Amino acid sequence: MKPDHRPTKLQRIGRGLDISPLLDVDSYTSCLLVNQTFKDILEELEPGVHQFFPMEIFIKDEKVGDRYWLNICNRLDTYHPTLTYPRNERGFFEPVKGEPFSVVFSVDAIGNHHAWHDKFGQGTYISDTFAERLQAAVLSGLHFSEPKPQQ
């Protein structure tokens, strides 16, 4: 993304920091806001791959923090080609309620990537290595989803 017309400030409305603290990792509409520690870890794992746009966080006229608007720049096809099903004719995972399904990620397709969006799925994915580093940093606002068992 070109940074020319990106917002640089975010206004928090509603509850104050005493009720809703500023988290280290947070989402705001469609963006992921991360702190310096998160940025440092991801930059160490994948230097120069992702974009981090500085954001100043305000409540009314008071600056309450700094974060980065993260743009994850890896877009990969990481579903295993034969073990993930059902997939439609375009390749998107498309489960049918009540029918068996399986989601399996390909270690080969993931390779040395640590943060990505899947071309045929939804959401943001991270490597086990990145997850372990984030957990060790004890950042607030992190939520990890466990892999779903095959059905």
TrEMBL record:
Superkingdom assignment: Bacteria
Immunity MXAN-0049 protein domain mapped to chain residues: 24-146
Protein name from the UniProt record: Immunity MXAN-0049 protein domain-containing protein
Species in which this protein is naturally found: Albidovulum salinarum
